[in-house]
């Protein structure tokens, strides 16, 4: 069927996990839109109108499988290492397996589909294998292939050769009205237990060499009769996989980002999204949504679908009727659309055009609602990570005209040092091309993590800083009183790391070196005994989002998203929930160590006959 057991690569998988995510240091750029034009997409309806083998077949009869009435099940994503990538070293292969396995597991926990019975059998492109079709509508073989293309050898997608075993066969009808046919290629066995087939290609491609900040790129290449993508290719730049600066978490998030593209969040697929609001079956008896992207009054292209609009209104606390999902406008011609969210409005989203430090990127509810609106998936929205960026800021948040307004705590001005908006890192006020002049505090390249105890070795004694798992960044100009006269000229406000602990919703205490725990009123400032200067206490940042935490060395998976604490929560119950989350994390880690359920990453055979 696929590859024999001796050629399979097995990767361990958790049955239960805590889920949420984020990404590393330098910005990881996505070039999905640039490579879309290079990949021809084959869909079930592209073939002859009455050719059954161009569709998913029953494993026994080869006839079209009847629709299933079963409830949606987690999407089964089968990964296949392209034969073009067979020269991977053992270290590269181990890194690839671990990152892809984790990304696939997470996406499968989020998306469910109506599963069709039988193996997945991909289509052949009639425009490649056929020299001409019978076009006389009165002929018996109307729309069937009359002559084979002698140059046809194989099916490819983004330079990946699709194995014949994954493909439906094709026939040639030499005469317009004769039932006589010649089998050009037989049906392959297909791929069992699969809803989406992901081909992995690890190569130092020209695009990888031209774009040093590109870790991977991807396209979809096959769709079923309902328009749902059923196969795609992710190209992973080999130098990024083998380099000394390799980051597992960055690679996991990049693969998730690319998977979301090939599963539906792509400008070439927006117009194929389906409306299933009147149907109990996702992706089946649904109507086309038609065009879902439109320009608002300011020229910003947006996605206008019900779930996206509803989530944006909830997130920004706005009733603006034009509040669709804003799409990136950098380097996009007027009236055209991007396959990424606008960075100024949805900074840190998993579907922004660039991904920063892995601890700051979020698998956000706006993106998951967009995938829900494709009509192909049932999405577990409860697993979305808290999108802190812009929460409650209103419809105008993130516009170029308002981002320099000092009243917003998300943007900054100048080039000073401060705190990243999640307060896990120290940061520097910077901009980039996607922010279009707006500035935000970005994590420093070295030693910015307040939650890393080892970073404390570089801190000065007079600052009172404490680094550790429960430390966060605060705007402060504190200095020890016995240092204050010496350091008056250096007492400007900047990001400092101090310990914190929650006492309720948006309520917490802090501790600086040598001090007791002190209440820090959200939105206010405090002074610390024995220190000169003050500390600003951020409002609606700390002790509000339980899933915004430092990564744990003991749990190498994304932690589970947790619903924001209700406003009436007492201090005691808030501490109780925090304890429960810690216990849940410990329990899941125990399960992770004990479970042996697995998924497969298949590798193409080393000695594969050329097609």
Question: How would you describe what is shown here?
Answer:
Helices cover 17% and strands 22% of the residues. It has 611 residues and is of the alpha+beta class. The protein has a domain at 31-263: Elastase, domain 1, CATH 3.10.170.20. The strands form twelve sheets. The chain has a seven-stranded mixed beta sheet. Strand 14 (216-223) and strand 15 form a beta hairpin. The longest helix is centred in the last third of the chain and has 24 residues, at 571-594.
Indicate the mean pLDDT: 81
Distance between the termini: 17 Å
- Helix run count: 10
Question: Which CATH C-level class of the domain at 31-263 is it?
Answer: Alpha Beta
Q: Report the CATH architecture of the domain at 31-263.
A: Roll
Helices and strands in order, then pairings?
Blueprint: E1 8-12, E2 28-29, H1 32-35, E3 42-43, E4 73-74, E5 77-81, H2 90-110, E6 111-113, H3 126-129, E7 130-133, E8 145-148, E9 155-157, E10 160-162, E11 170-172, E12 182-185, E13 196-203, H4 206-210, E14 216-223, E15 229-237, H5 238-242, H6 248-263, E16 274-275, E17 287-288, E18 293-295, E19 301-303, H7 306-316, E20 325-326, E21 354-355, H8 365-372, E22 378-379, E23 417-419, E24 426-430, E25 440-443, E26 471-476, E27 479-480, H9 481-484, E28 494-504, E29 507-511, E30 518-520, E31 525-526, E32 531-532, E33 535-536, H10 571-594, E34 598-603
Parallel strand pairs: 3-14, 5-13, 5-34, 13-15
Antiparallel strand pairs: 1-34, 2-21, 4-6, 6-22, 7-8, 9-10, 11-12, 14-15, 16-17, 18-19, 19-20, 23-24, 24-25, 26-28, 27-32, 28-29, 29-30, 31-33
